[in-house]
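User: ok so my PI wants both of these folded by tonight, can you help

Assistant: No problem, let's get them done. Here's the first:
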Amino acid sequence: MVEGLLAIPFCVVCRLPIFGRYLVDPWGTAVCARHERDSGQCDACGRFFARAAHAPGAVHCAGCARTVVERLPDAVRLFGEVSRWLGERGLSITGGRLRLELADGAALDGSHGGTHAGRVLGTTRARLTTMGAITRVEVDGIVIARGLPASLFRGVAAHELG
């Protein structure tokens, strides 16, 4: 940056310089006050995006939308990558194979009593067996929300595996 020049933000919706009030997301993307209602904020990364450039009801910016995990084969591949990565760092997953499922947000929220307003991204399914003072936990599956961008999917998988 040349000394003495000001950095003027540009609106993500109208692409014009902003000289008045505006909002900035965690990534530095700006939206002018005139276009606050015409912008969306990505559910995954928090980046602002122009609604007109996306499908109606879009909840992800273009970057996150390109990597959305909708199909089980893609989820299994990413889940395997995360499992191997954790194993390389000393967290081994022992026992039988875990069953991986993709579910919609409402189903996941329901599995947690419906109190999380659709923000449950994953859950671990386990069976508890108690014999006297000893309780055995047997993990038999992991459910992750369908439609997460790959980076967020990996984070949820690591959380559920850890």
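One down. Here's the second:
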Amino acid sequence: MARDRARLGRVAGQLDALSPLAVLGRGYAMARDAEGRVLRTQADFPPGTRFTLTVADGPVAARVEDDMSDTPTLGQDLARLEEIVRKLEDDDLALEAALQLFEEGVARLKTAQSRLAVAEARVMQVLQDTEQANGLRLEPLDG
């Protein structure tokens, strides 16, 4: 009987670790429409859509204000920055065109740096949570 109790305790712990609520506790959220269906893709969130966002400590009523599908990704920003640099290296570029490209490049660079910093902070938080849970040791990648 003690062996069965221990086995039951292990299975209960595994089940708890796999619970969607445990995932929410790690900073994730779940969105559902008015009928309770899970919203999974950007297409599920047209502007004006009302939905319930469930976070670690309960539900939050929400409404989509803006469709961000036209917001460039970090990869798109980097590709555009590389294109801007190639164009700025052209000796035949007019001064006004060069200034416009330079301004766009600086703005995209700031946005890309900010996105990268947010992503790095999220990765470090996940690693720190994993380190605490599993006794792992973290070392910085860049020195």
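The chain has a mean pLDDT of 83. The CA atoms of residues 15 and 137 lie 26 Å apart. Good luck tonight!
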